[in-house]
Amino acid sequence: MESSKVLILPGWQGSGPLHWQSLWVRQYAYQLVEQHDWMRPLRGDWLARLDDVVSDLTEPVYLVAHSLGCIQVAAWAQISAQCHKVKAALLVAPGDVEASHLHDVFSSWRPIALRALPFKSILIGSQNDPYCTAARAEQFAKAWGSHYLNLGECGHVNAESNLGDWPQGHALLNELMKEKEHGH
Length: 184
Known about the structure:
Number of helices: 5
Structural class: alpha/beta
Mean pLDDT: 94
Order of helices and strands: EHEHEHEEHEH
Strand content: 15-25%
Strand order of the largest sheet: 2-1-3-4-5-6
Number of domains: 1
Number of strands: 6
CATH class: Alpha Beta
CATH topology: Rossmann fold
């Protein structure tokens, strides 16, 4: 079986030590894509950083994005020449950077890229996510061509959601990684 690389893409402020993304990095030796500035996320910087990391890889890539990381994947997929390396993406609790209460922090991220992703993806939303309504998450999934899964009331699907290392999420990633590559 050919080896593959899993890249972990946290959202704004990064993922703390108890976040499932951080636990996956420690448990499975996945690669965290570090950002220069987690507190002031500039779109251009974040897209360039992801492009640098992917361009250095030769094996197939799987992306695991949370919150702003989902918006990052959608924007990156529209501009990168490296998309062919990505086999699939798990997009969890996208942050709606167009929501009025988030405008100031995320001005460089608007408008949100709403074109189909050139790789398979699953988007996971929650009924009570303070950063993105379930309806908006489903709208993103449709625009990006992602399979949509609503987890029910799981907040922002982060450490405060008490998911631990979130085995359900890892099972979904494993399903994506097992599937044979097929076109959109």
